[in-house]
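FAQ

Q: What does a record look like?
A: Structure on top, sequence underneath. For example:
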């Protein structure tokens, strides 16, 4: 990333990281060359500002994505106690915006953490499969539209790590997207548009992934139960689900 006249410009690798490297650097380069990302060359390397990237995201959604929603979540009604570990807390950093200093937000991508708007939570670069915290550290763990980005093969390990770092009677709170079978659909990105209400503030956001997996509420609730969590709440709406567990 480079800053010129107080404007941030992101290079090809920066932009690929914004998509969790699910869109490769070579694909991003191709979009620049085709003019689908309105950029300019700085030191002979393609760069784009945030406005150009936002326009590209809209174009990408039209060409390659199925986006469900918008779905509205009122976080003001959700109780989150004590010290909170937020898994995948970069990007919009919704939980950090909601609970501020209570939150330790982790994300494997430095750029995602830098993007998160709250300046009150503690941000740490970390992989959820290998949490660098002692056992029984947190009162609450959250995952707000995060499991959709984690390979299904890694879900069990992430849940085990969450269970380990939670205190006895601590709670794991999870919101996520139901991802159906892609079948023969030519579009290869699946995602959701969200409106998140925090008291008087409304956050408009969206989450999308390469459509190479399936996920539903039962997968996550069964996994948690097998690890030892007690299920406190299961709520499923069209395209989304909300789960709340307790470590016994």
């Amino acid at each position: 990333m480079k800053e010129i006249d107080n404007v941030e410009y992101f290079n090809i690798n920066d932009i690929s990281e914004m998509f969790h490297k699910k869109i490769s650097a070579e694909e991003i380069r191709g979009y620049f060359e085709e003019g689908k990302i309105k950029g300019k060359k700085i030191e002979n390397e393609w760069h784009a500002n945030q406005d150009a990237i936002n326009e590209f995201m809209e174009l990408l959604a039209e060409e390659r994505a199925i986006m469900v929603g918008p779905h509205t979540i009122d976080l003001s009604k959700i109780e989150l106690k004590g010290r909170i570990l937020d898994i995948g807390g970069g990007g919009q950093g919704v939980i950090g915006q909601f609970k501020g200093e209570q939150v330790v937000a982790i994300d494997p991508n430095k750029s995602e953490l830098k993007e998160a708007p709250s300046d009150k939570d503690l941000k740490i670069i970390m992989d959820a499969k290998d949490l660098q915290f002692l056992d029984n550290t947190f009162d609450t763990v959250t995952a707000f539209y995060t499991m959709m980005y984690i390979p299904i093969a890694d879900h069990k390990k992430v849940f085990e790590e969450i269970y380990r770092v939670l205190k006895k009677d601590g709670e794991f709170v999870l919101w996520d997207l139901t991802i159906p079978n892609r079948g023969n659909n030519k579009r290869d990105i699946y995602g959701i548009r969200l409106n998140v209400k925090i008291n008087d503030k409304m956050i408009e956001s969206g989450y999308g992934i390469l459509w190479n997996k399936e996920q539903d509420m039962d997968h996550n609730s069964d996994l948690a139960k097998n690890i030892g969590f007690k299920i406190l709440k299961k709520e499923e709406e069209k395209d989304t689900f909300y789960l709340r567990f307790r470590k016994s």
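Q: Is there anything notable about this one?
A: Residues 50-64 form the longest helix (15 residues).
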